[in-house]
Write a structure and sequence with these properties.
Elements: E1 2-5, E2 12-15, E3 18-21, E4 24-27, H1 32-37, E5 46-52, E6 58-64, E7 72-78, E8 80-87, E9 98-104, E10 110-113, E11 117-123, E12 128-134, E13 143-145, H2 166-169, H3 174-179
Antiparallel strand pairs: 1-2, 2-10, 3-4, 5-12, 6-11, 6-13, 7-10, 7-12, 8-9, 8-11
Length: about 200
């Protein structure tokens, strides 16, 4: 298993080692010991699974607030997506910066997204399934989102979305969330990102 930090500190790509023969293939998609050896200590509590029927379906950008923040380990098990993490921690040197990675059933890559990051993805083909582990359950009262096309963040999506939920269409800009004091993520360089 290859665990590589991206250009954003605390966000990692994970590439499982795939073992194949004439029968097919097998792999470990997550191994606690290997993550801990890489300095990542996380206790997942729930697995989620979504299906998107149409190419160009965009979900995001979503997050949960303290005390119900979620770290996620995201993978695409059917089709392909462009998966994005955005740093929304006030005071972070990477505030408003984003990283995007293509995840697909073929490449088997995963994206590990820590607390204090918004997350979203767009489907690159029809009939896509995405599965992800979280370290906290869904909490509607702590749920938030920001605009997928926020000009201050300026994500370079690989295609124009064709399907969005009403919630995502009507999401506020990050600056509006900050103005209303809707975000409670604070960056503290003295705290280890993955000591959760």
């Amino acid at each position: 298993m290859k665990i590589t930090e991206t250009t954003l500190k605390g966000v990692y790509t994970v590439e499982p080692k795939v073992y194949g023969d004439e029968r097919g293939w097998s792999m470990e998609s997550w191994t606690k010991q290997k993550f801990e050896a890489a300095g990542i200590h996380i206790e997942f509590v729930q697995d989620n699974h979504s299906f998107s029927a149409t190419k160009g379906t965009l979900r995001g950008l979503h997050y949960q607030l303290e005390p119900m923040v979620q770290a996620k380990l995201v993978r695409c098990t059917r089709g392909s997506i462009f998966d994005v993490a955005v740093d929304i921690r006030k005071g972070s040197p990477n505030y408003k910066k984003w990283v995007g990675v293509e995840l697909s059933a073929e490449n088997k890559k995963q994206l590990l997204i820590p607390h204090g990051f918004a997350h979203g993805f767009i489907t690159l083909v029809d009939d896509v399934e995405v599965q992800y582990k979280v370290d906290n359950g869904y909490a509607p009262h702590y749920d938030g989102n920001i605009r997928w096309d926020d000009p201050e963040i300026n994500i370079k999506w690989p295609l124009e979305p064709t399907v969005l939920s009403d919630k995502d269409k009507d999401a506020p800009l990050l600056s509006e969330r900050v103005k209303r004091n809707d975000l409670n993520f604070m960056f503290n360089e003295d705290l280890r990102l993955w000591n959760m």
